[in-house]
Amino acid sequence: MGREICGDLGIAEEREWLVTNGIGGYGSGTVAGSLTRGYHGLLVAALRPPVDRRLMLVKLDETVTYRGAAWDLATNRWASGAVAPGGFVNIEHFALDGSIPCWRYACADALLEKRIWMEHGQNTTYIAYTALRAREPLRFTARAIANNRVFHNTGTVAWPAGVSAASGGVRVVTAGDALPLFLKLEGSAATPATELYRGFALPAETARGLLDRDDHIHVATFETTLLPGETVVFLAAAGDGTTAVEPEALARRRARDRALLSAWSGARPSGAAAAPGWVAQLVLAADQFVVDRAQSPGGSPGKSPGGSPGKSIIAGYPWFEDWGRDTMISLPGLALSTGQASIAAPILRTFAAFVDQGMLPNRFPDGATVPEYNTMDATLWYFQAIRACHEATGDDGLLRDLFPVLQDIIDWHIKGTRYGIHVDPGDGLLRGGQEGVQLTWMDAKVGDRVITPRIGKPVEINALWYNALRAMVAFAARLGEPAEPYQGMAARALASFDRFWNAAADYCYDVLDGPSGAEAALRPNQLFAVSLPESPLSPERQRAVVDACARALLTSHGLRSLAPSEPAYQGVCVGDQERRDASYHQGTVWAWLIGPFIEAHLRVYRDPDAARRLLAPMGDHINAAGLGSISEIFDGDAPFVPRGCIAQAWSVGEALRAFTLLDQAASPVQAPA
């Protein structure tokens, strides 16, 4: 990106970068350098990986003095409406170097480069500055702006702060908080400061109806001289004590990027066409979501009960935790499609430790120690993730270890578990739901009101149930276990699935046997009755479903959650929390749905070229919001503005999985599924 983007504050603020550390911590901000969200910061540390996240180092306000003139690199918006400093005007170029955000600032005839990355496995952020071009030395000054609050903007500030000199840098300790922050700029003089900066304006939060003002603390000023061609590195680390600036830190980050791309390249089918560059960028983005999970019951921090490293997947940045549903849906794309199959088993084992009353957790709240179990589908997606993992790896040991867990899940669903989730003895279909509880992925809730309650027998739940039973048949046969009970239940569910067909509309009902009978609204959930490995629909009905979704729901960046012709349709997802939640699943486009749509399209039409064109617009989108990644949602109306999280696990995972399906379809050695 050149000055046409970087030099326009409004446009540059719409483009956000992200770096992560594999334990839930991250850094994120705008190309302009200004804060637009309460979640923005250079170091957001995860104290109990991958949760309990704290905003620690917020930003650096940098100035370069060169040939007697001062050049600002930083940009701040203030509640007064002022923009000061306005260093964005000096950004000549921005790019992602692999996973590393990289700026170039033009200061007269000097050119300064800035890079940001995190140390994998540590709450440590590095910011490197290089004088690429200069006729004489540059005087470099950085004012460190910090905090120590929870990463959600609650209107609090960690004040007062104690700042003291430590090993060439400063150690910052805030009131009532035991976790210090260590800051150091190599070769610099550090001057401690405790100055409260009030009134940072956060326009992205204004648009979302959230708290849009923030206060932070100027904790120290660092000054050094940067010679032509020289690089200096700023370090921010959470924890007690001091940390040295490691000269190999950038090399390690680059080596990790190369290893990720090499593993992906090695996993692709031979003879497939070369992948476009944006797919490789998504492979690097996929790694950002994979994290250690340190809260396995009965295990030590970072370990599962069996002693192996515990793993999970962050649902989205900057504000989501790890969710069971999102993890299981995104796992095949993030792990298997990228050649990282080795991380799939630890994730599946970690979640097995949390199965309770036959249910996977819905999510692990950031400030809590007990997971929430309000989900009907996360558990069923677990079967699909295990099936995909076993098909990719042939790991019978994993299958044997998890088979008793899966048996227990089936038993609980037969006899009944939380929220009325149980198999209906009348038809063998799975039903569930109760007033005031959201159980499917369409889970928006305003106060006590669930926007799409879907109480009864949702179509995708029963497509997943049928596939879970069929998976159990295959698993049992593989392990030499009795398969007959699962064969019988699968056959009954298959026969009863015919009830979902809405002959008048020529597509499926969304929910059966709800409080008001069948729900006939055109939604994308029926796609899973086509895209899952074993479809309960005839080929003719599969095509009708794909065609109905293509006509009314398909957009350039995913599928609408409700057809525009439906009375409840809302075409934009803007406003305060209540307004946004009310439209979240009432027309908003979800990027992750492009995966099942492409899979269903391939199954029905067997036209890889046509399906590939459906995925291509994601290559444009990765330059538009969360750079190098895919957003959570988009408006249902054109121009389909990206909304929600700037980087969403299942959006990235399903795009990668879809590309892999297309890759395989194009390979002469493999046929489409």
Automatic annotation (TrEMBL):
Transmembrane segments: none annotated. Pfam families: GDE_C, GDE_N. Residues 285-657 form the Glycogen debranching enzyme C-terminal domain. Residues 15-232 form the Glycogen debranching enzyme bacterial and archaeal type N-terminal domain. NCBIfam families: gde_arch (TIGR01561). This is Amylo-alpha-1,6-glucosidase. It comes from Sorangium atrum. The lineage of its organism: Bacteria, Pseudomonadati, Myxococcota, Polyangia, Polyangiales.
